Amino acid sequence: MLRRFIPLLLPGLLLVQCAPAGPVTSVPLPEKTRIQKTAEPVVHTQAQLDAAFAGWAATAQNPINFRLEGELKGKWRQLISESTWGEYARRCTTAFMETGQVSLTLEYRDYVRLRAALRDTAFRATLSAAEEQLLQLLEQRTRQCLRPGMSDMQKALALHDALVRSSRYEAEGGCNIADILRGGSGSCEAYSATLCVMLEIAGIPARVVTGSAGGPHAWNLVQLGGLWYHVDATWDDPVIGNGSRQELSHAYFCLSDAEIARTHSWNRAAYPATGTGSAAYYRLTGTYFTSFDAYWSAAMVACRRGEKSFEGYLTTYGSPEKFQRNMQRAATAATPRRLRWTGPDGPAGAVILTFGE
Question: What Å distances lie between residue 32 and 29, 36, 79, CA to CA?
């Protein structure tokens, strides 16, 4: 997690809070339904159900029918819980019979329906007029961010940056894509849903992850070059205690499971695992530094080019006090008189140095 130093350490990021999904309700399953659905898929484990949900949600299938077998029949309430369907739906109504037959009716989240519409023109025809307008607006904004010849990494970066720059995080804000596109603000759920659909439009596989980061939270998994990475646009668009904005960060762009697990938690079994590399974004962009002097040299080059700030990953950051001592040692008459920076909570991580006011 990044914190701002001007030059002293100020309170960290506000932890995001997302509105909980609706309750699960149960209704009787008619005998006719049981007879008609006996050939539906059979689920033996929680892992199978998690994987099946990902497939069903890819096409926004509704209702969903399957059978539980063996001892799972008596555990259906635990299996079909918010931890299973909460990534995809705001509410789930279930019907169950002693035979193990289950029928689910879901109120899908907006990103699930829009993503399914991108994959299936027939399903797109079922969107409401408001949904279709929203999808067209997303397509327009995505196209504005992309340029010919971009790699998937560059596309994901452009979409991430555009979302952060055009949006304002609100802990109690709306949870829908429309809140971001039309209102300019929203919760972590709105951020992750919007980025997920924009990535899908750009041809990049993505998922929304629901978990915890000091409280209920949502972010993304993004597949680039065959590998999955965590991307948390909400935490790259931070605010501090007085509500002022910090600089755009990439500290939570393309993280491994191990890296993001320092601050986030989630049901790992329900999501694809990432690679084991660290600081992937900074390594790929040539902004990964193992010494302060190398970082400082690159930052001063950026300053002379007229850039307002410089961001890089510094393995020898150490602490705010150490970084400040290093700056005082390296400063010359040409160094801007006012410098401020955002650094990591630990001894290594992303550092954003801002020049001037």
Answer: 8, 6, 24
> What are 344's strand-pairing partners?
2
Which parts of the chain have pLDDT scores under 50?
A: 1-26, 32-37, 241-242
What is the reported pTM? 0.84
Give residue 246's pLDDT: 65
- Locate tokens 């065959």: which residue? 226
Question: Scanning the structure block, which residue is given the tokens 């500290």?
Answer: 251
Topology (CATH level 3) of domain 24-109: Ribosomal Protein S8; Chain: A, domain 1 (3.30.1370)
CB 187 within 8 A of CB 18: yes
Q: Please state which architecture CATH assigns to domain 122-283.
A: Roll (3.10)
Other CB atoms within 10 Å distance of the CB of residue 10: 14
- CA pair distance 324, 345, nearest whole angstrom: 15
Q: In the structure encoding, which two tokens stand for residue 281, read together? A: 């974004």
- C-alpha span between 286 and 95 (Å, rounded): 54
Residue 12 has a pLDDT of 29
